[in-house]
Each structure stands twice: as C-alpha cells, then as structure tokens.
Amino acid sequence: MLSKSEVVGALSQCQDPELGANIVDIGLIQGIQIKENNDVKVTLTMTSAMCPVTSIILADVQLRLEALPGIGKVDIDLVWDPMWSPEMMSDELKYRN
Q1: What pTM, to 2 d.p., does this model score?
Q2: Which of 11, 56, 59 is nearest to 32 (CA)?
Q3: Is domain 4-83 classified as CATH 1.10.357.20?
Q4: pLDDT per residue as tens digits for the range 34-77
Q5: Of the residues 49, 67, 72, 85, which has the maximum number of CB atoms within 10 A of its CB?
Q6: Are 80 and 45 in contact (CB under 8 A)?
Q7: Which residues contact 65 (CB under 8 A, 6 or more apart)?
Q8: How confident is residue 90, by pLDDT bands cut at 50, 70 and 90?
Q9: Residues of 72-82 as b/e, b for ≥16 C-beta within 10 angstroms?
C-alpha cells in the first residue's frame, strides 16, 4: 500500500518556478486521498487564479506521482476554496531569509 509520506515526498519535489519553493511548503496541497488500490487523489490550489505557471505545476504533479512505484490512477483536483493565503506556507518558508 502506498503511504501518504511517499505521496508528500513526491509532491515536495514539485517546485513553483516563480517562487523557487516546493508546492508542499508553499501550502498548495489541501488534501491527499489514497484508496486501497493505490489510486491517489490530490486536492490543491494555486496562490492565485491568475497563476501563469498553473499548467506547469499540474503537469509536474502528475508526472511525479505517476513515477511512484505501485501507484494506481492519479486524480488532481484544482480548487479555489479555501483561497490560498501566506498563512498556509510552512514556517520554514515564511521565515527564510
């Protein structure tokens, strides 16, 4: 069975090219569901509905998840509620110099 930490690890390799940080630390991941057959659904948002790199990030998420051994179907759900805010970022990212 695929673990949530494996999925988070793969998602942590996805970088927002504008911010230079991974999408987990930015706080874009809103949910991860793993079914018994290793199908994975990731719910995520962008920092803005006008984000110019949305398609790049979504393609990267898809590719990195599909590369996980034993993974089933990958479903990515892009949502706008709740809206992203800087409070969603990891403490490490909020306070980096």
Answers
A1: 0.93
A2: 11
A3: no
A4: 999 999 999 999 999 999 999 999 999 999 999 999 999 999 99
A5: 72
A6: yes
A7: 7, 10, 11, 40, 42, 71, 74
A8: very high
A9: eebeeebeeee
